[in-house]
Design a protein that fits this description.
Length: 110
Amino acid sequence: MENGGRIKLGPFGLNRYFPVGGFCTTIVERYQVLQEGIERARNHYKINFTPDQVIVIGDTLKDIEAARKIGARVIAVATGGNTYEELLAKEPDLLLANFTNDRLFFSLLD
């Protein structure tokens, strides 16, 4: 599944910002994929990241729910199977229609 994630990030030049992440390789709960991504980041950067330091980027309601379950912030992008309005109802920290406004995207990182 990592290849699929990389394909989604590629057109916007975002892969360089994400050398590691959580990508589903087996059938598990989505929040477990996020926990795996945090562990990969800990190993890669040698920093003990906590969930509140994590920003999940997703395009489904399940991504928002999983981020909330582990205590992470979430950027939702309405480029997947859920509408902008459906994602908005789940109250992500930031909601984008797409990735064309990179300034807005990176505003959550400040």
